[in-house]
Amino acid sequence: MEKQPRLLCSRLLRGHTQVEVALNNSVLGWKDTDRSRKRSSGFSSLSGTAHSHVVPVCEIVAVCKTEDDNTKKKKLGSQLYPHAFTVSYVSRTRQHQWCCSDVTFHSADLTLCEQWIQVINEQLSLLTNRPRSLLVYINPFGGKQRGTRIYEQKVAPLFRRACISADVIVTERANHARDHLKTEASLDKFDGVVCVGGDGMFSEILHGLVTRTQTDHGVDQNQPEAELVPCSLRIGIIPAGSTDCICFATVGTNDPVTSALHIIVGDTQPMDVCSVLHDDVLLRYSVSLLGYGFYGDLLTDSERKRWLGPARYDLSGVKTFLSHKCYEGTVSFLPAGDDVGNPRDELLCRSGCHVCQRKASSNGKRRELSAEKETVCGLGVIRGKFIAINAASMSCACPRSPQGLSPYAHLADGTTDLILVRKCSRWDFLRHLLRHTNQDDQFDHSFVEVYRVRMFRFLPRDQEPVSLEDQSETGLEKTASGPMCSVQTTSCSKAHSSWCCDGEILPHAAIQVSVQCQLIRLFARGIEEQQQCVSEDPCTLWAPEPNTH
Ligand SMILES: CCCCCCCCCCCCC/C=C/[C@@H](O)[C@H](COP(=O)(O)O)NC(=O)CCCCC
Ligand SMILES: Nc1ncnc2c1ncn2[C@@H]1O[C@H](COP(=O)(O)OP(=O)(O)O)[C@@H](O)[C@H]1O
Ligand SMILES: [Ca+2]
Asked: Which residues form the DAGKc domain (predicted)?
């Protein structure tokens, strides 16, 4: 492998220890000089050892001159070290959580300090994926109503340190952010949009940005066949809501500082968006959970309890569970091809996911479905009585369910996992729900089916074509593998449930859904597998002998 040219290497003081500090094109490293001759104390991982440290330049937040009285008095033996610079960088703590650490290096030589600052800044300026200017929307009433405080105390200081300018809008009503993005915001000025709030607030930003992008490109998003234009601006999520599932499933934790750092380093995570239509008219977009039956009822009930904050979901969850309703209807769907795996293949979507990188084009398939219209050829058609119909376009992992509704769903593969929970006993449904909170397989029940699909459609029973109703009266059901006899004999509520769509309630039960592959991008990188290693041996930072200053 070709060696990177070394840019700078110096002996400096860190605390009361002399360290050797080196910067090449991609890595900053430092280690104690008394150990520098012992190769065994080399740099074995990204964060190094107790006596050594390596930081990829792409994870440096900022570098600045350090000016305080302590610095001026800094001494080792009789030598004064009155000049210093501080590097702020990303360090990993636990459970995908990041924090911003500082390291200060002292020197007797002012010119040397300035040289270090200049060279690091030059390296940072080469990182063109970093945002310089952001448009920030804060929902002051999301979650525990801490959005404004979280932004001001935890996020704004980091943005300032990274020299990112931010135009901040604290929303004054629901849909304020959506409407502002749709028509007013001067988006040319910004490198990204940041949402401080929960999944509902994210949904506002999503709708504003997708609509604005289509308008700017002359695309009529209400045409079911419209080829939507991907949004150029990335979206950052600072979690300050109740569930924050979109943040959790794309970062691995709901922590404002971690999210701010992903924004600062300019991470990119493409993401699928579902178009949800009723009678060929666009209702909404969705990126996480579209749920009918259990989750729709739960969300509807919880909206009346908003004053309770995030606890509303627990109360409404118990109430909805006890009511144990089921709903009849027909689900038809276009299965995804084998290239994107299946919902039980145990292939987790992680940072740099290969399945998502093989971005399957969903547009051709979309046209196929509309051409087939009501024919069942190539489609799965399932009619029955359901406690829940869920479509998870991503894992929907969140603190309540760390693996999520569909643990092996992918963020950007152009598909959604359709989960059908048929009528079953209360006890069985409880067993199914409990499996969302542990490692057991929630799909391993006779009353649960799961399909990876590109499109699906749902019709509640009273809107089904007569022929399907006739079939239901004769006890026949069609499945993906053909007709079969129904074993369901218990009666079912004829009323509709509602669809909840990323936490918002839809006004129609009959919907058509199609996945728009990678329509948006987030400031995230997907959940990191484990601590990543530096690809080259970091010891090469110091070999051969440095030009030590
Ligand atoms: C007996 C134990 C039962 C435990 C069941 C746990 C199953 C949890 C699955 C949760 C999936 C959540 C999917 C995300 C939905 C959010 O978009 C939505 C709105 O979020 P926000 O705007 O931040 O409030 N939240 C919900 O739908 C709440 C689901 C709560 C389920 C208990
Ligand atoms: N200033 C505001 N006043 C009232 N509602 C708002 C305001 N700003 C945003 N909203 C709405 O609040 C709802 C919930 O927001 P969200 O941030 O997702 O919190 P939570 O996760 O607690 O539901 C969203 O539907 C959003 O449209
Ligand atoms: Ca997906």
From this structure: 129-280
